[in-house]
Amino acid sequence: MEIKDITFAYQDNIKRLHNIAAEIAIGKITTILGPNGSGKSTLLGVLTNNLAPQQGSVILEGKTIDKYKPKELAKKLGVVHQQNSAPHDMTVEKLVYYGRLPHKKPFNQHGEEDDAKVKWALERVGLYERRHTPMDALSGGQQQRVWIAMALAQDTPYLFLDEPTSNLDIFYQYEIMELVKELCEEENLTIVMVLHDINQAIQYSHEIITMKDGEIIAHGVPEEIITVQLMQEVYNVNVVIKQDPELGMYMVPIGI
Amino acid sequence: MTKKLLSFIAVTILLLFVSLYSMITGSIEVGMGELIAGLFTGINENVEIIKDLRLPRIIIALFAGACLSVSGVLLQAVMRNPLAEPGIIGVASGAGFASILMITFFPTLFFYTPLFSFFGGAVAFLLVYMFAWKSGLDPLRMILIGVAVNAIFTGLSQLLSSMNASSMMSGISVTTSTLTMKTWNDVQIILLYGSIGLLLSLLVYSWCNHLGLRDKTLRNLGFQVNRARLVISLIAVLLASVATAVAGMFAFVGLIIPHIGRILVGNDHKLLIPFSAIAGALLVLVADTIGRTILSPIEIPASIIMAVIGGPFLIFLLRKSDRIYGN
């Protein structure tokens, strides 16, 4: 996936993204980092065709994404948004079946392939046993996994996650991160996500894109781009970066 | 599952029972056997009167109730708001105004009244939708704008009626509904347009279900959200307009019935839509039957009874509205 010179503004004409250009590595986990208002969620919106850029384009398999028919694009990109809602009495399984929507022909019931994909997606996130549970009986972490299962049932090569760990306890945060890692390694998905936690990003990403004021400041392998200077520039925070033989690289903020 | 099935069976049986009871009760009373025999032979005078005066009224009450509740269900799906209802958000008064306008100026085009009121209802809906939409429909803002739109169209209707007070008798009363003086012509209208609307609503049930998710999520599933919204809204406006054009204004039916439906059969529109149709028909018929028998020979319009029940119900819903839909 190639991002070509994207410029984006909402109706107020304040530019939220300037000349963004990047290449998303296939089969890898790429994380977008940056302070609040840096444009990371906006960039994710543009990449998933929810926001139309004023300039530039996003090219997916040789074709700009706004040229795809809605259903065709939905067979390429699965997206888990930061905020989701479903009728409270909807069961887990029914919700995950929504992921099959792009594959459905009008007036057709779901077939064997749909059933198989939904089962696989539910097993993948570890909620197959709870498939008949209504959504409001699940914890926040479980609900998040249901939304991920829905995107998995879409059966797409790309998966986008907008702050998948926000509002979750640390155990559930890591549960989600481990799941993301497995999906990339075992199912060969290309994953792009927005995260807040810098250490989680370092730990789980193959590549990191750091943003500030609507521009990309650095893009590359975490070990190479995450430096004291970059953290100072992007977040205005003093940090110490350490290497540990077991943990790898990690970062501790020490003051402003 | 059994609770849902039982709910369906219960309302259906009640509906049949109330329909029969309503037919044999009133200023003219006949026995059940007499009624059935009379309907087939056509020689019983009392039954003939019932057939001419009471039966059309009952059929219209049934259809008006079904149309208004289903319209409520559809509007609630489109606006993702449990308080949306054709009466509250002004769709019904827009439709009512258009039909009065039509009857005042082109009384001969009587059969096409529903089409006119459809345009009136659509205009009112569009106004509410446009003004209340700000990256999502805020429930309170929607209700407030709905109240304003409702007031404007009710006012316009009253203005029109007082300008030509003499022709008022032939028209539709402005704020209340009178199911008296209904003929088989009215039945034909509501039967035709109402059935079309109800059938269409059954065809879009899965779209209504989809709209329970967020727009962004749906768009990323390749679902064309705005197209679905437009189609469902048009069906909802059609249903509300037909009911208003023939039966007049009924507040709150489209609010109470879907809400009860959600409790009894759940949020799945595959069940909610047919259930609301049956239960809505039942409610309006009950209101009308009570209205014409309780203080007989004085008749209380069914809509007044509905308003008296519905007002407190709306307050109750507003108080707990943040719990509905699970947000």
Automatic annotation (TrEMBL), chain A:
Keywords: ATP-binding, Cell membrane, Ion transport, Iron, Iron transport, Membrane, Nucleotide-binding, Transport. The keyword Ribosomal protein does not apply. One of its GO terms (molecular function) is ATP binding. Transmembrane segments: none annotated. It comes from the Bacteria. Its main location: membrane. This is ABC transporter ATP-binding protein. It is found in: Cell membrane. Signal peptide: none annotated. The keyword Oxidoreductase does not apply. Pfam families: ABC_tran. Gene3D superfamilies: P-loop containing nucleotide triphosphate hydrolases. Residues 1-238 form the ABC transporter domain. It is a peripheral membrane protein.
Automatic annotation (TrEMBL), chain B:
Gene3D superfamilies: ABC transporter involved in vitamin B12 uptake, BtuC. It is a multi-pass membrane protein. Keywords: Cell membrane, Iron, Membrane, Transmembrane, Transmembrane helix, Transport. The chain crosses the membrane at residues 55-75, 87-106, 112-133, 140-160, 187-208, 229-260, 272-291, 298-318. It holds the Pfam family FecCD. The keyword Hydrolase does not apply. It is found in: Cell membrane. The keyword Membrane applies. Part of the binding-protein-dependent transport system for heme-iron. Responsible for the translocation of the substrate across the membrane. Belongs to the binding-protein-dependent transport system permease family. FecCD subfamily. This is Probable heme-iron transport system permease protein IsdF. It comes from Oceanobacillus luteolus.
